[in-house]
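Case study.
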Amino acid sequence: MIPDEWPLSEATTDRLFALASKGLLLTILIWALFPIYWMVFNSFRTRFEIVGGDPSFTETSLHYQNYIDMWSRVDLIEYFMNSLIIASVTTVIALCIACLGGYAFSRYRFPGRRYVGASLIGTQLIPGILILLPMFMLFRTFHDTVGVQLINTYQGIIFVYTTFAVPFAIWMLRGFFDTIPASLEEAARVDGCTRFQALVRIVLPLAAPGIAATGMFVFLVAFNEVLFASVMARGDVTPLSIGMQQFMERDQNYWGEMMAASTVATVPILLLFVLFQKPIVKGLTEGGVKQ
Amino acid sequence: MGRIDIDGLTKEYRTPNGPIQAVESLDLQLEDGEFVVFVGPSGCGKSTTLRCIAGLETVTSGAIRFDGTAVTDEKPKDRDIAMVFQNYALYPHMTARENIAFGLKMSTDLSAAEIDDQVETAAEMMDIVDLLDDKPGDLSGGQQQRVALGRAVVRDPELFLMDEPLSNLDAKLRAQMRTELQQLQTELGVTTVYVTHDQTEAMTMGDRIVILNDGRLQQVGTPLECYHRPANQFVAGFIGSPPMNFLDVDADLEDGRLDHPDFTLPLSDSLADELDSTDLVLGIRPEHVSLTDTPETHPEPNRLIETDVTVTEPMGDITNVYLDVGGEAITVTVDGHVGVDPGGHLHMHVPASKMHLFDAESGRSIKHSDEPIDSSSLSEADSHVETA
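After joint prediction, the assembly is written out as follows.
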C-alpha cells in the first residue's frame, strides 16, 4: 500500500521496485559467482601477477602453464576418482534406501510415523563435528572387535556419508511420492502387479525427476564434504576435497597451479549438473507442490 | 465367475478420535452379468465397498465370494477384475498402447504379438486406434476415459469395477459415455459394479441400484422399485430429481385425517388401520402434484392445499414450480406449456394414490404410491397413453 504523501506515481514506484529487485539479484549473483571467476581468472595468471603488489581483476597474461604444471604437484586424477567412487556409491545406496523409506512414509500409516519423520529431520540439525569423534571411536572399536577396517577405507566413508544422506533423501523423496496419485499404484495392482512391482514400474519412473534431484544433492554433498573425510578418508582413499586442502597446505606459493587444479576439478561436476539440470529443476519444483 | 456374494461386510477405520465404520454389516448378492450401481452421498461407504471388492482395502469383518470362492483376503491381482478409476489412473509415462497392454503383460503369458492384437481389438471397440501412440497428457478427458475403459476391457475380466468414472467429464460427454458404457456392458455381459453419487446415473444405468447411507445399506432394487417403493425417507429423498417433497404431519386416527398446521388431508380407513404411529412425514413426488386455480370445480376439493408460488424454473419440456406451504418449500413439476407466474396463489392437489407416508422417527416407509414398477413394453405404454 502506497502512503498518501508518497510523491511518486504507482507506475514509477513499480518500476523502482522492479529495478531494485533486479539490482539485488545482480548483487547476489556477483557474490555467488565471483569466487568462481576469481578461481578461473587466477588459474591463467603467473605467480607474480597473483601475489604482486598491483592487484587487478582483469589483467592476465593467459598463463596456461599452470594447467600443465599442476599435474606434477597434485594427483588430481586419483583424488577425483576417489571422490567419484565415494560420491557415486553413496548416492546409489542412499537412493535405494531413501526410495523405500520415502515411499513408506508417503503411503503407509503406522504408529509413531509422525515422530519418526520428525526425528529424521532432527538428525540434520546435529552439527557433524559433534558426531565425528564418536563415529571415529565406533569405527575403531568395530575394527578391534569384528576385524573390519572402516577408517581410511571406501566402505567406511561411504557408510558415514550414507548415514547422513539417507534421512534428508527420505524426507525429500517423500514429498515427491506424495505428488503421485495413489490410484496409479492401485490401478497397477489391479492390473496384476504386486505392491513392489507397482513401486518399481509405476511410482519410481514417475518420481524420476525427484530421484534425480535428490541423487544430485546427495552426490554433491558427498563430493564436497571435508570434515569427515579429513579424519576418516586419508591415504589411498583421499578424496578431491582433502587432496586440494593438502595441496594448499603443502604448496602455498603455487596459487596459479592450485587455481588451475580447482578449475579442472570443478568442470566434471559442472558438466554433470548442466546435463541433469532440466530434470533437477523440474524435480525440485514438483516436489514442493502437492497436487 | 460373475456372481458376487457379500456377507456381513464391515470396514472400520481407526482414527485418533476413535474408530469410524465406513461400511456396516453389508449383505449383498450380485448376479452374473448384472449391472449394479452403488449410489449414495459422499461418505456413505460406496467407494469403500467397491475397494473392498477390488481388494484394495482390507476387510474388518465379513466375507466376499466370487462364484462361491472366498476372495476376502486375496490380492487385487488374483481376483480377475478390472477397475476404472475416477481420475482414470492412466500411467502418464506410458503411451495409450502401453497403458492398455500393461495389464496383459503383468497378468498373462501372452506373446507380444498376441498382446498387440488384443490391444488393437480393444482400441477398435473404444474407437481410439488413432490415439494409441499418444501419452495420456496429450489426450482430452473423454479420450483418456476411453483409454481407461480400453485398459479394463482388454483384460476380459470376470468383474468390472467402476469408481465414478464419468464424474470428471462435462455434462454432454457424460451423457454420451453413459450410453456407450451401457452398450459396452450389454455386449460384454460382464458383471459390473458402478459407483456414483449421481442418482440420475444410477437410475439410467443400473439393472439394480444399491443405495447406501452412513455405511448402511438402505435399499437394493430396480431403479423403478427404489423410485416408487422407497424403503425409507432417505431413499425417497435421494432418488428422484427434483427430490420428493416432505411435510411433517400428525395422523388423527379417530377422525381419519392427516393434520398439518396449514392443511388437513383425509385418510382412508384402510390406511388408518395400518398406521401404528401418529408422527408421520408425508411425501409426494413433484410430478404427482397438480395445480389448480379453480378449487371450486376440482373433483377432490378436500385434497387441495392452498399455496403461494415463489419461483418458477422453465426447463422447456417441464417447468419446476416452487411453492410455499406454511413456510416450507414444495416443488411441483408441470407441463412446460402451462403458464405459472411467481407470486400467484394456487391450490395443489395431493392424490391419495401417489402419497407416501414415513414414520417420522425411524424414517421407515409406511405407505407408498401405487405407481407400477414393472417396465411395460412400448405397445403397452402406447395403450396406456391412449386410455389416458
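Observations recorded in class. Chain A is about 75% helix and 0% strand. Residues 10-66 of chain A form one domain. We will return to this complex in the next lecture.
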